[in-house]
Amino acid sequence: ALGRYLSNTTLRKVRMIAPRPVGSAIVAGVFISGLAATLPAQAGHFNAELLPAVRRAALDQVRDHTLLTRTQVQSLMVRPNDPRIKIDSSVAARYLVVDFDPILPIAPGVVLIKAPGHTAGSQMVYVRLASEAEIIIAGDVAWNTRGIDSLAQKPDAATSSFGGEDKESIAKELRWLHDAAGPRMSILVSHDLERLDALVAQGRLKAGFDLTQP
Q1: Chain-centre distance of CA 74, in angstroms?
Q2: pTM for this predicted structure
Q3: Burial of 142 (0-12, 13-18, 19+ CB in 10 A)
Q4: Is the dihedral of CA 176, 180, 181, 185 positive or negative?
Q5: 121-180 pLDDT, tens per residue?
Q6: Are 125 and 76 spatial neighbours (Cβ–Cβ below 8 Å)?
Q7: CA distance 21 to 134
Q8: CA distance 43 to 46
């Protein structure tokens, strides 16, 4: 067993409750959970200088289409990773907030997987496409796919600014993702822009956000 949330049977259970696939490709931005994932990135790091412009131009639209756990909302209100993304109760009320343990289907072929480790509210997203290809969007479990391939955790210096990660949970999540990867299963982490571009080129992802759906 790999722990409370991820076990040897988790992926089998996820596949059982997500039998109806989504379309031929997914729009990457919609399924990357957490407010920070909507910020512009450069070389794997957020470009803080662009943050005010992003807030004005995009976050108001994205917020109404962002699904967060109650733990994530609490973190954003009380102790966010970056003080510039702190929110108040009026902003929090605009998010779609859910509680689940350990998996939650949210759309045909789409299942949330609870994965606390990077932060207490972190989650992954499983997606099955009409082609039967599968994608797990793993958030910030690693900086890039190579970290999953090698089971390498981030250096402490990279996570100390927000109190560090739960190393035991991250180790279990890296192992689970490493074992889940295969010819039909693509693993995607938020900061791996090279991998993102490759999946777009393969037609498994489409670049940008789709805000036309509720």
Answers
A1: 17
A2: 0.77
A3: buried
A4: negative
A5: 888 999 888 888 899 999 889 988 999 999 999 888 888 877 788 899 999 999 999 999
A6: no
A7: 9
A8: 8
Burial class (CB in 10 A: 0-12, 13-18, 19+), 101: exposed
Other C-beta atoms lying within 10 Å of the C-beta of residue 45: 10
Q: What are phi and psi of 151, to 5 degrees?
A: 60, 30
Q: Is the pLDDT of residue 60 over 80?
A: no
Average pLDDT, the chain: 77
Residue ranges in 18-100 assigned as alpha helix (H): 28-31, 51-54, 60-63, 70-78, 89-92
Type of residue numbered 208: G
Name the 3-class secondary structure at 209: coil
Retrieve residue 94's tokens: 């605009």
Are 35 and 76 in contact by the 8 Å Cβ rule? The answer is yes
